Amino acid sequence: MNWRIKPLDDILANAERRSLKRSLGGFQLTMMGVGAIIGTGIFVLTAEAAQKAGPGMMVSFIIAGFVCAVAALCYAELASMVPVSGSAYTYSYAVMGEVVAWVVGWALVLEYAVAASAVSVGWSNYFVGLMDRSLGISIPEEFTRGPYAGGVMNVPAATIALLVTSLLIVGTRESASVNAVLVAIKVAALTLFVFLALPVINGDNFEPFAPNGFWDATGLGIAGAAASIFFAYVGFDAVSTAAEETENPQRNIPIGLIGSLAICTIFYMLVAAGVIGSVGAQPVLDAAGRAISPGSPEFAAVCALPENAQAVACSREPLAFVLELLGWDKVSQLIGLAAFLALPSVILMMLFGQTRIFFVMARDGLLPAADTLTKVHPKFHTPYVVTIITGVAVTVFAAFFPVGVLADIANSGTLFAFMAVSVGVLILRVREPNRHRPFSTPAVWVVGPLALLGCGFLFFSLPPSTQLTFVYWSLAGLALYFLYGFRNSPLARSKK
To answer: Contact 148/402 with Cβ under 8 angstroms?
Structure first.
C-alpha cells in the first residue's frame, strides 16, 4: 500500500511559501496553554469526578495528568522539529502517511470544535446564573437551552462563540493579549479557593477513598473518572498548533507545552484536595445503595432529593458551591464570576487550534476549495475564511446541541491524536535518527510506549457509546477522504 508519506523537508518548505506571521514568545505560549487547559474541566467536571470516584478522584487526576505529561514530551519533540501549524495532523503526515494524517486531523475536530461548543454551553450556564443573581434579570429558558432540553436556541452560547470567532479574525497577538488577562483571573480564582479550602481539611472526608472501586463497565470508578477529567487537561497540545506563528519555536514550543501542563497539574491536585478534604466528595446513591452515572435522568432525580442538597457531586458549580458550604458566600460569588469571565479563553484556544489545523489540511489539498480556505487577511494576517467557517459550525453546535456527552466525545478524538503522536515520535527515531532535534524526549523508548498505553487505557475507559461514536465519525471522515482528498492532494497528483 502506498502510504503517501510527506517528507519533513517538503512540509517545512511548503509552510515557508504560505506562512503565517510569527509573533508569539515562550511566555505567551505558556499562558495560551494554561488558558486552554484551565476551564470547564476543573470548574465543572470536579462534580462528575466526585460522583464517579469519590475521594479517589485524587488518583484520577494523577492518572490523567501523567498520561498528558508523557504525551506532552512526545509532542514537544515533534513540535520543535516541525515548527509549522497542524499539530498531530502534520506530524502524522510526515511519519505515517496521508491516510493516518487525515484520520488524525478528522479526530482533532472532536477535540477542538466539539470542545469549544461544550465550553460555550458551560459559559452560558454561568452567564444566565449571574444575570439572575446579580441583576435580577431572568432570561426565558426558551433562549438559554437547545431543543434537547425543551428550549428553542441557546442564545448566550451562540453569542460567545461568535464573539470569540471575531476576536480570532482580528489577530493572533491581540487574542493572546486578551487571553493573558483571562488566565490571570482563572489562576487568581483557583489560588483563592486553595487558600480558603486547604486549611479546613478533615482527614475523615477521604474515607472511603474509592467507593466505586478502580474500574466499572458503566464508566464509574477511578478509571472512569480519569477518562472524564482528562477533559480538564485537554488543550495543552493547542500550543503546538501555534508553532508556525511562534518566534524561535525550537525553544519556545517545549517551554509552552511543558510549562503550562506543570502549572495546571499543581493547581488541579491542590483544588481536588481542597474539595474532598473540606466538605467531602462521596457519590450520591440510589435507593438500592448503588452509585449512579452522572448526567442520567436517574442521577438528576436523586440529586433533587433534600438529603443530597449539599452533595458536591450534584453541584453545577462545584468550586463556588464548596466555598458557599464553608460560609464564604461573597467569595463564592467571586469564584463564579471568575469562571464566567475566564471560560471564553478556553473557547478561544479551542477555536484557534481548530482553525490552524483546517488551514494546514486545506494547504495540503485535502479539503475542497483549498485556495479560498487558505486565504490570509491582508490587514490582520490571520486565516480569516477558515476561521469564519469553523466559528459558524461551533456556534451551531453550541446553540442547538446538548453538552452532556460532548466532553467524552472530545476526549475520544484527543486520545486518538495523542496515540498517533506517541507512535510517530518512535518511528521517526528509527527512520531519521540523525535529524536535528532541538528538543529530545527523555527516555523516549520508555516515555513513548507509556504515552501510547496510557492513552489507550483512558480511551477504553470511556463509555462504550462514546467509543462507538468515534468509530462512526472516523468512518465518515474516511469516506470524505476517499471521495476528495485521495485524488486531489499534491502527493496524489505527483504520482500521476
So the answer is: yes
Copy the grid coordinates of residue 463. 463509555
Q: Domain map of the chain by residue range?
A: 24-495
Q: Dihedrals φ, ψ of 289, to 5°? A: 80, 20
From first CA to last CA, the distance across the chain in angstroms is: 16
* pLDDT at position 452: 95
| Range list of H helices, 364-437 | 370-373, 384-400, 406-431
> What pLDDT is attached to residue 1?
37
CB of 249 closer than 8 Å to CB of 83: yes
- For residue 123, the model assigns a pLDDT of 82
If you classify domain 24-495 with CATH, what class do you get?
mainly alpha
CA torsion through residues 189, 192, 198, 200, sign: negative
DSSP string, 252-312: HHHHHHHHHHHHHHHHHHHHHHHHHHHH--PPPB-TTS-B--TTSHHHHHHHTSGGGTT-G
Where the chain has pLDDT below 50, the residues are: 1-2
CB 189 within 8 A of CB 339: yes
pLDDT at 445 (0 to 100): 94
Cα 440 to Cα 70, 88, 418, 463, distances in angstroms:
13, 17, 17, 35
CB 94 within 8 A of CB 100: no
How many Cβ atoms are within 10 Å of 391's Cβ, its own excluded? 25
